[in-house]
Amino acid sequence: MQEEKQVSEKPAPAPKEVQHAGLLIFLSIMTGMTEFFLELLGIGSRTIEIDNYELNAILSFAVNFVFIMLLLNRKGWARAVFAFLFLINTLGLIPIVQKEFQSDLIGATSSILQTLFSLAAIVFFYSKNSNGWFKKEKPPVKIEFKKE
Question: Has this prediction a pTM greater than 0.85?
Answer without folding.
Answer: no
